[in-house]
Amino acid sequence: METVVSEKHSPFATEPVGRLILKFAVPSVIALLVNSLYNIVDQIFIGWGVGYLGNGATNVVFPITIIALALSMMIGNGGAAYLSLKLGEGEREAGRKGVGNAVTLVVIVSVLLAIIFLVFLDPILTLFGSTEVLRTYAIEYGFVIGVGLPFMMISTAINSMIRADGSPKFAMASMVVGAILNVILDPVFIFVFHMGVRGAAIATVIGQVASFVVSVIYMPRFKTVRLERDSFLLSRRTCGNIVTFGLSSFITQFAITIVMALTNNLLALYGASSIYGAEIPLTATGIVMKVNQIMIAILLGIATGTQPILGFNYGAKNFKRVKKALEISLVVSEVVCIFSFLIFQFTPMTVVSLFGSEEGLYNEFAVKAFRIFLMLCSLTGFQTIAAVYLQAVGKPVKSAVLSLARQIIFFVPTALILPTFLGVEGVLWTGPVADGLAFLLSLALLLYEREHLKKSHAMECIPA
C-alpha cells in the first residue's frame, strides 16, 4: 500500500517557515559541505605529503569534477523541483515519473561522461591548464577520479530528491558516511602506503561508493511517491521538464568549469612572465577557488533546503509563505557571506597554511589571491538565492540568465581584458568585477519578481 502525505496537511504547508528552512537547510548545507570537503581534504593531505605541485595537479583535474557535479545537480535538482511543484499542485503521478526518470537519466549521463573523460584524459587536462611539470601527477589523480564519477553523480542526484521527499537528514547521512571514509583513508594511502596523489584519489572514490550505496538504499522508501518499474522508463516530456527545471543549477556549476579552465590558462600564461612563474599562481588561485567553494556550498545548501518550501507553496498558491521563505533565506545567506569575507580579507594566511608548509613567493601570491579575487564575495549569497528562487517557482529561463551572468557574461570578457593591462594580477581582479555586476542584475530581477509575488498574493486575498 502506498504511503502518501496529504498536500493540505504537508509540513510544507503548515509548519512555521523559519523552522522548515532550518530543518531542511541544515542537513542540505552539511551534505553539500561534505561534497566540497572531498577535494579540500585531498588538497590538505596532498599539500603535506606531496607538495604544492601535487595540489596544482588536483586543481587541473577539479574542473571535470565540477562538470560531473553540474550534470548531476541539473538532473537531481531538476527532479526535486519538479517533484515539489507537482506535489503542491496535487499531481502525484507526475511527481513519481519525475523521480524515476531523473534516476535513469543520471545513470546514463554519468557512465557516458566517465567514458569520455577516461578516453580523452590527456587532452582534457591540457584544456584545463595542465603544464608539463604537473601532467604526471594530474594523470595519476585524474584516472582514478574518472572511474568514480558515476558513483558521485548518481548519489548527488538522488540526494536532491531525497531532500524534496522530506528526508534531509538521510540525504545528509549518505554524504557524511563517504566523507568520514575519505578523511580516514587519505592519510593511510598517502603517508602509510606512500601512494601520493593516486592514494588520495582512491580514498575519494571509496567514499563516493559508500555514499552511492546509502542513497540507493533509500529509493524504495520514498514517502511522497511510490516508485515502480515504469517510473524509470524515460519519457521525453518528463525528461525535458527535469532538464528545464534543473538548467540553472547546471549553468551555475558548469560555468565554474569554464571559469577555472580560462583562469588556469591565463594564470599559467601571465604567471610565466612574472616573478611567480606559471605553477605558483595556478596552484594558489586553485586553492582560493576551492576554499570559496565551501562558502558556495553553504549558500547552495541554504538555497536547496529552501527550494522545496518555495516550490510547494508556489504550486499551492500560498504566496505569503513563499515571500517569507525568500526573505529568511536571503538574510541567512548574507550573514554567511559577510563572515566569509572577514576571514578571506583579514586572516588569509591562516587558511593558506592548512594546505602545506610553503614560503616566500607562494605565500605572497596566495594571500593576494584571497584578498583580491574574493573582495566582493559578500554579494554572492544574494545572487545564489535569487537564482534558486526563480528555479523553484518555475521560471528557469530567468534563473539560467542570472546564473550565466557572473560566471560567463561578466567574468569571461573581464578575464580576457584586465590581464593585458595588469598582468597576472588582472586575472584576480576579474572576480570582484564579475561579482559586482552580477549582484546588480540579481537585485533588478528579484525586485521585479517580488512585485509580481505581491500582486499574486493580493489577488489571492480578494474574495470571490
Question: Could you explain the architecture of this structure?
Answer:
With 464 residues, this protein is mostly helical. The chain has helices spanning 11-14, 17-49, 52-89, 92-119, 121-127, 132-164, 168-192, 196-218, 236-272, 279-315, 319-346, 348-352, 361-373, 380-392, 396-422, 424-461. Helix 3 packs parallel to helix 6 (132-164). The radius of gyration is 22 Å and the shape is globular. Mean pLDDT is 86; it is low at 1-6.
Shape category: globular
Distance between the termini: 39 Å
Question: What's the gyration radius in Å?
Answer: 22 Å
Helix content: over 70%
- What's the count of strands? 0
The biggest beta sheet is recorded as:
none
Number of helices: 16
H and E order: HHHHHHHHHHHHHHHH
Please indicate the percent range of residues in DSSP E strands (runs of 2 or more): under 5%
Structural class: mainly alpha
Average of pLDDT: 86
Q: Regions with pLDDT < 50 over 5+ consecutive residues?
A: 1-6
Q: What labels describe this entry?
A:
mainly alpha; 464 residues
Describe, in short, the structure shown.
With 464 residues, this protein is mainly alpha-helical. It is built from 16 helices and no strands. Helix 3 runs parallel beside helix 10.
Topology:
Blueprint: H1 11-14, H2 17-49, H3 52-89, H4 92-119, H5 121-127, H6 132-164, H7 168-192, H8 196-218, H9 236-272, H10 279-315, H11 319-346, H12 348-352, H13 361-373, H14 380-392, H15 396-422, H16 424-461
Helix pairs in contact: 2-3, 2-7, 2-8, 2-10, 3-4, 3-6, 3-9, 3-10, 4-6, 4-9, 5-6, 6-7, 6-8, 6-10, 7-8, 9-10, 9-14, 9-15, 10-11, 10-13, 10-14, 11-14, 11-16, 13-16, 14-15, 14-16, 15-16
